Amino acid sequence: MLVVNDLRKTFGRRAAVDSLSLSIPTGQMVGVIGRSGAGKSTFLRLINRLIEPTGGSIAFDGTDVTRLTGRDLRLWRASCGMIFQQFNLIERMDVLTNVLVGRLAHHGFGSSMARAFSAAERATAIRALDRLDLAPQALQRAGTLSGGQQQRVAIARALVQSPRLLLADEPIASLDPANAARVMDALRLINREDGITVIVNLHTIDTARRYCDRIVAMRDGRIQFDGAPDGLTGAVLADTYGDSAVGGAIDEAITSTELPPVRQLETA
Hints:
Layout: E1 2-11, E2 14-24, E3 29-33, H1 40-47, E4 55-60, E5 63-64, H2 70-79, E6 80-83, H3 95-100, H4 109-114, H5 119-131, H6 147-159, E7 165-169, H7 177-194, E8 197-201, H8 205-211, E9 214-219, E10 222-227, H9 234-241, H10 248-255
Parallel strand pairs: 3-8, 3-9, 6-7, 7-8
Antiparallel strand pairs: 1-2, 1-4, 4-5, 9-10
């Protein structure tokens, strides 16, 4: 279980995350929504310790994540598979090598520099790609893939880290509806089949409702709503996005990415 208690992050005088507390059971898929600047991305980066909290604590299965240092911190970051809007692939490298980069935290300095991956690690990477319908592209340069394919490569890279959490920061914001659906289908399938907790920041309300067990709505670094998708009423959305957004802006947020019907990805 992930337990966040009174988590705070300030940048100068601005509170990006302000006294945030919540508990997320293992295996839950949580969608985080809110307008730009609500603190969603900062929240994920705090969990992964990519940035340091100003105050409060983060615990996972009884371990105080905020106190980890050195190798323990490196392994914690490896256990949080992070998926970004920008994909963060090395475009000149082939797809397989990009996926294997997810194993670097488990290597010493020398083998990391040499990219000395074992046969077992390469097999794991191929299985992850096959699971995401990308095995045929394993030796293709990452930069030649479509945006949706690149994001699925990023998911495969996260999978080979053997993550305990998957953190996805606006993973479909730059994708067309068909590719957005494939990425969200993949995240949900991993959540369901592997029992991995998934926390995903989303721009579109309909996507959060469709895919997530639970929705957390943020505004000004604070939680405005935390509950089941069917509890996300117009009044809650007005509190989250501002009273002026009750009309057209909320309608646009709900429908700006119309995803095709949910489907199941074939698994290896």
